[in-house]
Design goal:
The complex is a heterodimer of chains A (228) and B (49). Chain A has 7 helices and no strands. With 228 residues, chain A is mostly helical. Chain B is mostly helical and 49 residues long. The N and C termini of chain B lie far apart (72 Å). The chains are: A mainly alpha (228), B mainly alpha (49). Chains A and B meet through helix 1, helix 2, helix 3 and helix 7 of A and helix 1 of B.
Chain lengths: 228, 49
């Protein structure tokens, strides 16, 4: 049953991603000033929001772990963080490729880019910390605390383009600015690709969570095998 | 339009798809490895018992 749900969700995500790619490449016009390269935004922005979604999940699950002391919440936090890192990497690298053609440089140490990198490194550190602690309860407690503190970097990254003058473009989405700064057709496509990437992120978290469950079974069986 | 503009668009989209594809492959490989470990441990315990 669970496997069928995963397969169904996978097929849905695959179709949605291919449909979006076709529209992005062949139906939408080039942007007047940037030309075709602006299409990178259809992955750069949704990947950022998919990563934020994962980090929020990790924050909530980590908080729940500290309240309930249930290792299931720790597994959710870890799975969401790992998937969030993959999407944040897509955001960072696609941004660099766009920056090279638009700004003439691969990287600028402005507030938004720097905080996005710090955010990625902090969450990568979270995964490294988990590798360093053997005791599951101790690992879960320390990781949960780090995950909650790490979320500060997500909030700063999100607000950086409002708080500081950055080379990175300011907010453009109408849900954030209250104004229609980009063509509604282009904005709708951003939301559609966010839907596709967010569904992919959910699927990846479910798969990763299932793997954590398998790992726990393996650890239990190993202890049993030693005891026999 | 500058040819580099189209090239960079291609590399941008390829990177987005490529990174996610790499992560999916890593997930699938980990799943296969875990399944193998789980099966062999179950077999070992059955044999010991």
């Amino acid at each position: 049953m669970a496997k069928n749900i995963r397969l169904g969700l996978g097929a849905l995500v695959g179709m949605l991603l291919l449909r979006n790619l076709y529209i992005i490449l062949f139906n939408l016009p080039d942007e007047m000033e940037q030309g075709p390269v602006y299409r990178i935004f259809y992955y750069h922005l949704p990947a950022f929001f998919a990563a934020i979604l994962c980090y929020i999940t990790a924050l909530v699950a980590s908080s729940m772990y500290l309240i309930k002391k249930n290792l299931r919440y720790d597994a959710i936090a870890m799975s969401a963080t790992e998937v969030g890192l993959a999407f944040a990497a897509v955001n960072l690298i696609t941004g660099m490729i766009w920056g090279r053609i638009s700004w003439g440089i691969w990287w600028a140490w402005d507030a938004r880019l720097t905080w996005a990198l710090i955010c990625w490194l902090v969450y990568f550190g979270y995964l490294m910390l988990r590798q360093a602690i053997d005791d599951p309860t101790e690992r879960a407690k320390n990781s949960a605390v780090l995950s909650i503190f790490a979320f500060v970097s997500v909030a700063i990254t999100y607000k950086a383009i409002e708080w500081w003058r950055t080379q990175h473009p300011g907010p453009v989405l109408s849900i954030r600015t209250g104004k229609q700064l980009i063509d509604p057709v282009m904005e709708n496509m951003l939301y559609m690709n966010f839907l596709a990437l967010a569904t992919l992120a959910v699927l990846m978290v479910i798969i990763r969570l299932n793997q954590e469950e398998m790992q726990r079974q393996i650890d239990g069986l190993r202890r049993r095998a030693h005891a026999i | 339009m500058d040819d580099r503009n189209i090239q960079f668009m291609f590399w941008g989209l390829a990177t987005a798809w490529g990174l996610l594809a790499i992560y999916v492959v890593m997930l699938a490989a980990r799943e296969g490895r875990l399944k193998k470990q789980l099966d062999s441990l179950k077999r070992m315990i059955e044999e010991k018992q």
